[in-house]
Amino acid sequence: MAFTTRAAAIGLQGFRTAGGALVAQRMGMSTVRDAASGGKKRMPRLQKLKRIVYGTAAVGTAYTGWLMYRNRNPPEQLPFDASKKTLVLLGTGWGSTTVLKNLDTENFNVVVVSPRNYFLFTPLLPSCTVGTIENRSIMEPVRILMRHKNREVRFYEAECTDLDADAKELTLVRTADGEDQLNRASADHQDTIKLKYDYLVVGVGGTVNTFGTPGVEEHACFLKEMGDARKIRRKLMDSIESATLADVSEEERDRLLHMVVVGGGPTGIEYAGELHDFLQDDLAHWYPKMANRVRITLVEALPNVLPAFDKKLIDYTQSTFLENKITILTRTMVKKVDEKSFVVQNPDGSRSEIPYGMMVWATGIKAQPVISRIREQFAAAQTNGRGLLVDEYLRVNGAKDIWALGDCAVSGYAPLAQVASQQGKWLARRFNALSSALKDDPTADIHGLIEEKNKPFKYSSQGSLAYIGSEKAIADLPFFNRNITAGGIATFWFWKSAYLNELFSLRNSTLVLSDWVKRFLFGRDISRE
Fold first, then answer.
1. Tell me: the pLDDT tens digits for 190-230?
2. CA dihedral 447, 449, 452, 457 (to 10 degrees)
3. What is the Cα–Cα distance from 153 to 525, expressed in whole angstroms?
4. Buried-most residue among 196, 302, 317, 481 (CB within 10 A)?
């Protein structure tokens, strides 16, 4: 027993000695590391991560503040220079505004002509019809962009009605009435202005195509401009309020609460989705007796909706609409529209009359009246009635020093916002690159040099997105040599982030984001203006 105790004591003493040596060795190694690092202690990883996050947030806040300050305080601009060439931009849509945004105005005297003094972010226009987004959140005043250019840019709030290609002169019409901006020719008092140009970029977009269907212009609502969104919002609430009156018959009430969308493209699909959300999220609370009686019908002449999307996404959209009780009538053509009903031709050739309370017509576009006047100037080369034929350098066929882009140009590409935007960016860069030729020789032929010194314009598809209601969206995105398709709630959040990124300015992005937050917290505004 004594031997065992003594052995244990010796073992414990040896363990303590070895343990002490090990601790001393570790302390010595730590001292060596501290000496190698200048005596500084290592920062914990969590603390280092916090500093990175705080630093990034501080830099981001400072940068955002600088952007806001710069936006509110534009610099001094160079005045118009008589020795510079005059470049006129017709329109403030995707094409023309992108040209202005990317153009170095120091090299030209730039004049913008448009009946509206703002850029409209059209992909979110359906959201404005039901109050998901406020109207001005997707409107960017063009003068804000103009004031941040190097040289002064002049703006005429007027409509171009004629062109004299030989004299290089435009006829502009401006009315005293500012309410009807896109139909100024109908106003009583008009001011006619003559404007000279050296180079002309036509980007006036298109107007709604009714395909000659009787009654459409008189009784249907369009969805092309902000005024259309306001009209739809008023008409929608008017139909709902009228349906709540006690002396309305049940048949009349059903008619008033029948909402019809004509056109199965992205615009029609997104409007139907937004309308469904408005009924489910808001109308059900404030009009509980009416919400379940509202019907939504989408009419499409083609065999299916969204023909430009993948078949799987088409099926997904149709199944989602079926779940949301949205009726889809494919292979059905609208033949006539009256005040309270419309006539359709069914797939079997028979005709039916359907009562409705509100109709939104979203079937496509056609050329603006000024495009027809330009085409008449070059009738031999302009043989397409849909718009201005252009070559691969966006030059108008048969014309000199005139370019066209966007929906008013027949370029072989679909009339999409991203096509017009890429065309505008390409053309602005070509003008910037060729401006040096004008410095060396004011008589240089940019119209010809643009082909000699540049590759043709080539559109690169960035994919297609569409909102289909119930916080679901679809996406058809290019990935190398194939496309990726997706649909659902995750795609909906991608749709939101993509549009926030594509909005024209920080101001627009902030306003749209705040509108989404307000809708989530307080719902949509149901008041009728």
1. 789 999 999 999 999 999 999 999 999 999 999 999 999 99
2. -50
3. 38
4. 317
